C-alpha cells in the first residue's frame, strides 16, 4: 500500500466518521427540539396554575373584605378591587383598596406570602399609590397583606411593621339556601 492509498483511506475514514457525527448531531437536535417544546408546555401549565391560585386567593379576600370593610379596628365605607393606575413611568395595580372619609387601606393579596411581599407593600405599593392618586395625599394609610399561606416569620415581620395580616381561618363557608330536591 502506498502512501497515497493510506492517505485516501484516512480521508474516507474521516468522511465516514463525519457522517456518523452529523447523524448523531441531527438526532440530538431533534431530541433538544422535543425537550424545548415539552419545557415550554410545562411552563405554560405551571404559569396557569400559579395565576389560578392567585385569582382564587384574590376572590376569597375580596369577598371577605366587601362583607367586612375593616382593617384591624379601622372601618371603611367602600372597597375597590384590582384598581389600576398609570401616570408617567409609574404603573401599578392594587388588589384591594378600601376608603373612608380620611383613610385608605391597601391590601396586597398573595396565595403564599413571602418576606419580599411585605417589603414591596411598604416600599413600592404604598409609594406608587400615593404617586398615582395624589388626591389621597392627606389620608391616613393602613396596609394589609392577605394570603392563604403564611410562614410564621412573615406573620411576625408584617405584624412588627403594623401591617394587618389577613388569613383564611375556620368558619368562612357561605352557601345559598334555595336548594332543589332531587
Notes on the protein architecture:
The protein is an alpha/beta fold. It has one domain (1-182): Trna Endonuclease, Chain: A, domain 1, CATH 3.40.1350.10. Helices cover 51% and strands 26% of the residues. The protein contains three helices and seven strands. The protein has helices at residues 3-67, 115-132, 152-160; strands spanning 70-71, 74-75, 78-87, 90-99, 103-112, 140-149, 164-167. Strands 3-4-5-6-7 form a five-stranded mixed sheet, sandwiched between helices. Strand 6, helix 3 and strand 7 form a beta-alpha-beta unit. The longest helix is centred in the first third of the chain and has 65 residues, at 3-67. It is elongated and about 100 Å long. The mean pLDDT is 86.
Overall geometric form:
elongated
The main sheet orders its strands as 3-4-5-6-7
What's the total count of β strands?
A: 7
Whole-number total of structural domains: 1
Number of helices: 3
Helix-strand sequence: HEEEEEHEHE
Strand portion: 25-35%
Q: What is the CATH class designation?
A: Alpha Beta
> Which oligomerization state do the chains in this entry correspond to?
single chain
Look up the CATH topology: Trna Endonuclease, Chain: A, domain 1
What percent of the residues sit in helical stretches (DSSP H or I)? Answer: 40-55%
**Radius of gyration over C-alpha positions, nearest whole angstrom:** 29 Å
**Terminus-to-terminus distance:** 96 Å
